[in-house]
Amino acid sequence: QGKFTLLRDTRTDGSFLVHHFLSFYLRAGCKVCFVALLQSFSHYNIVAQKLGVSLAAAKERGQLVFLEGLKSCLDLLFGEEEEQSGQPSPLQFISESASNLKALFDFVQTSLTPAGSDSWKGPVLLVDDLSVLLSLGATPVAVLDFIHYCRVTVCSQLKGNIVVLVHSNEDSEDEENELVVNSLCHHSDLILWVEGLATGFCKDVHGQIKIIKRVSLELTAEQDLVQIYQYKIQDKNVTFFARGLSAAVL
């Protein structure tokens, strides 16, 4: 509890980790606020059903609070957004000159603050994917402020967890995105860094994952623990193996 996990992908798609954490926390009985900026609700629901979880049922029983970013953006841009219960849209910053993510933070705080009747085990904030906020016009400082306030509220006060996906590319000229990614790496308790193979596409090995446990955050003299595995994504699960030991090689 109280941990910040960063999912980082380079030259490949790391969204399979988002689906894993979403189904994992819902099965564990946690209250989940999912800020989904990349795909529609039906997309996440179809994948979750393959993993044995129903997002629609989780929404109905109040366990899952889902922000469908694609729909909210369109409604805001075309003026169809209706303020619910007098609250502004969480993505209000799109239609304002000031790059202020306070409305989005208020949405997260309201969603995860436990009510008297709640019996969920712990709050979880899941963001897919943070880089989209920069594309929508938010400044790097605003994005980092948003994450900072979420960490204080969710991790420190509510003793919950945060899982955030970001896209990164060392060769990219998108300096704002790289600034956000590097800053988040310094604050993370755990980094799951998914990379495409340097040698190109392979049918039996889809990429490699670097697991970095940030022991140095605990102010001990120890170095971070780094483990590297390769993986293959299958229909309903993912197989991990040591580098060079895939079934195709052996």
Automatic annotation (TrEMBL):
Where is it localised?
Answer: Cytoplasm; Nucleus
**What domain of life does the UniProt record list for this protein's source?**
Eukaryota
* Keyword line: Cytoplasm, Nucleus, tRNA processing
Which is a Gene Ontology cellular component entry for this protein?
Answer: nucleus
Q: Name one Pfam family in it.
A: ELP6
Pathway(s) served: tRNA modification; 5-methoxycarbonylmethyl-2-thiouridine-tRNA biosynthesis
What GO terms in the biological process aspect are recorded for it? tRNA wobble uridine modification
**InterPro entries, alphabetized:** ELP6, P-loop_NTPase
Which family does the UniProt entry place this protein in?
A: Belongs to the ELP6 family.
In its UniProt entry, what is this protein called?
A: Elongator complex protein 6
